[in-house]
Amino acid sequence: MDPVIHSALSHPGNITFHANRPFVHDLSAAGGRVVRQAGGHFIFYGPDNRRFLATDPEGNPFHECEWVAAAKGTVRLARARVRLDWGQWVGVKPEGLANCTTLDLSKKPGWERLRADDLRSMAAQAMRVSLEEVRFFYGDEDLAVDARGQATIRHKKDALSMLEAGTFERSRFMACLGTMHWARIDFLPVVELFQSLLPGTGSAVFELIRGLYDDQNQTSPLPLRYRGIPTYPSEAAYRLFNSYVAADHQGFAPGDRTVAVLQGRLVLKDGEKRVEMPLSPTWGDIGGSLPSRAPSYPLDWRALFAGPPPHVAPARAFSAVLLYPDDETEIEEAPTQPFVADYLQDTMEQDSNLRAHLARTERVLIHNFDAVLTTCVNLDRARDYTILYSRPDFAQKQAQALWNQLAKAGRVEWAKRIRLMSAESARTAAYSQPYDLIYTWIPFSQFDRLAQVEETARAVAGALRPGGLGFVVGPSALSQSLQANRLRLLSTEPVETLPTFRMHQSILPSARVKPDLWLVGIRKE
User: Less Cβ crowding at N or C end of the chain, within 10 Å?
Assistant: First the structure.
C-alpha cells in the first residue's frame, strides 16, 4: 500500500467512527477503495460508493463521514467530522436539533379532517411562502394532529458542534442549518447562529457538501441553490448585505495581514513582520500572486492596547467565539453580552435624547463588555475610549475587528484615542477619571457578593460626570445600590425580556439566561 494512503488511514485521529474502523486494517478486504484526484487529494469510499474520508496529498484529513443503513436498502449520513485548517474538528449531526411547536386547533371548525397538507397550507400562508417550499422542508412525519385537536409541528435542523477532543464524546453546540438531504444533495442550507462558527467552519462544511454533491452527480447533476424558510436569499436580505459590503478594487488586508505566492514560496506578512515558507511539491504547480495593492497604515491593531497586547495562543484566539447551549443550560456570561449590547445599540439609534447625548459625548468607559466591544464603540466621530477587559482572547479579537472598521473608513488615526487595558491592573486608575458615558458589566461571579456590587455602584457614580449616562448590568440589588449613590434610574429591564434575547429564542426555544440579570440605565444629575 502507498505509504501516504496507509498513513491517512492509520494516523491517530483520522478515523474515529466505529463503522469506518475495518477500513483501517485492510481497505480492500473491507470493500473500500481510494481515488487520487487530479490535484493529488485522496478520496476513500466504502462498498456503497459513499466517501468516508478525504485527505490532502500528504494524507492530512479534510473530513470523515459515517454512513448507516436506512429504509428500503438505502443509506443515510449519521454523522460527519470536518477538520479546520488550524487543527480543530467540527461535528455535523443531521437532524441533530429538533424543536416542536404545538397549536390548539380544537376550536377550528372541521379540525378532525385536517391533514398534513392542510397544516402546510396554513404555514405557507402565515410565513408568506409557497406550499411547495413548506412541503420541501416539512415531511408528513413532521406534522401531526392528535385526537384532541392539538397540532404538533416538528422543526428539524442539522447541528454543527465543536468537538473538543476531535470526537462527539465531548462536543459543544455551535450553530444549525436547514436539514439537508445528505444522501442526495439538492440544495444549499442557510446557517443560523453563524457568528458562533469557529473560523474556517463555513469553508470546511462547504467542501464536504461539494465533495458529496460531486460524488452523487457524476452524470446528471442536480441544480444547486440556496433554499430556506423564510425565503433565502430574499430581496430584503440582499439589500441588507449590500449595505454592509462595498466593492473595493484596491483590496483590503484585514488586520494588516497578507498572504502571497512569490517565486515558489508562500509569503506571510503581519504588519512589518514577514515569514517565508517553501511550497510542498505535493501541492502541484501554484502560480505567483498579483502584487498586493492594499494600502499601508501608520498604526496596526496593536496600537489600540495601552502597552503590549496580551499574549494569546493561536488556537485560543481562533476559539474566541460565543457558543450557545441547544438545551436549557444557562448561557454563559460572554455569550449573554450581545443581547444587551445589540439592544443598547438599537435604543441609541431610536431614542433622540440618547442620540443627542452620544453626539456630545467626549469620554467613554467600557468595563467587562469584552465580547461586544465593537458594538459599544460608536465610530461616528473620534472620542476617548477607555476599555477595561478581563478576557484577553476576546479583547484581541475585538481590537482586530475595531481596527478593520477604522482602516476601511480611513480613520486609523482615531485608534490613538482608544485604549484597551487589563481590568485587573488598570481598574482603579480608569475609574478615577471622569466620563460622559459608562458601560459596566458586573461579572456573574460577583452577583452574590453585595459588597462588590455596592463598590461597583460607588465607582460608577464617582466616574460619571454631572449629566452623564451609564448602563450597568448586574443583579436586582444593583438598582438600590446605584440609587444610594444619588444616581437617577432611567430604566430597569430584565435581560430575559429584551427583544434581542427573544429573537435568539426563536432559534433555540429552550435558551435561558442567568436568573436575576438586569440592565439598568442611569443618569448623574
Answer: C
pTM for the full predicted model: 0.91
Give the number of other CB atoms < 10 A from CB of residue 214. Answer: 14
Give the model confidence (pLDDT) of 192-248 as tens digits.
999 999 999 999 999 999 999 999 998 888 888 888 887 766 777 777 777 666 666
- Which one, of 340, 130, 107, lies nearest residue 231 by Cα? 130
* Total Cβ atoms within 10 A of residue 87: 12
Tell me how far the alpha carbon of residue 88 is from its chain's centroid: 15
Is residue 50 a contact partner of residue 65, using CB atoms and an 8 Å limit?
yes
| Beta carbons of 394 and 421 less than 8 angstroms apart | no
Q: Which amino acid is at 472?
A: V
- What is the four-CA torsion angle of 473, 477, 483, 487, rounded to 10 degrees? -10
Q: How far apart are CA 342 and CA 53, in angstroms?
A: 41
Cell numbers given for 68: 448507516
Assess contact for 125 and 55: CB atoms under 8 A. no
Domain boundaries, the chain: 3-95+156-243, 96-154, 314-524
Q: Which residues pair with 191 in a beta bridge?
A: 177
- Collapse the DSSP code of 476 into the 3-class scheme (helix H, G, I; strand E, B; otherwise coil) and give the result: coil
**Cell digits for 319?**
476559539
DSSP state of 411: -
3-state DSSP assignment of residue 506: coil
The CATH number of 314-524, from 3.30.460.80, 3.30.1490.20, 3.40.50.150, 3.30.420.10, is: 3.40.50.150
Question: What are the phi and psi torsion angles at 8 (to 5°)?
Answer: -60, -35
Q: What's the farthest any 2 CA atoms get from each other in the chain?
A: 82
What distance in Å separates the CA atoms of residue 450 and residue 455, rounded to the nearest whole number?
Answer: 9
Cα distance between residue 344 and residue 75, in whole Å: 49
User: C-alpha angle 222/224/226, rounded to 5°?
Assistant: 150
First vs last C-alpha separation in the chain: 80
Rounded Cα–Cα distance for residues 384 and 333 (Å): 26
Q: 159 vs 218, 220, 325, 360, CA distance in Å?
A: 28, 29, 12, 46
Reduced 3-state DSSP string for 78-95: EEEEEECCCCCEEEEEEE
Least confident of 26-40, 287-301, 415-429, 490-504: 287-301
Burial class (CB in 10 A: 0-12, 13-18, 19+), 229: middle
CB 299 within 8 A of CB 310: no
Residues 153-193 pLDDT 10s: 999 999 999 999 999 999 999 999 999 999 999 999 989 99
Sign of CA pseudo-dihedral 117, 118, 124, 130: positive
Contact (CB, 8 A) for 406 and 400: no
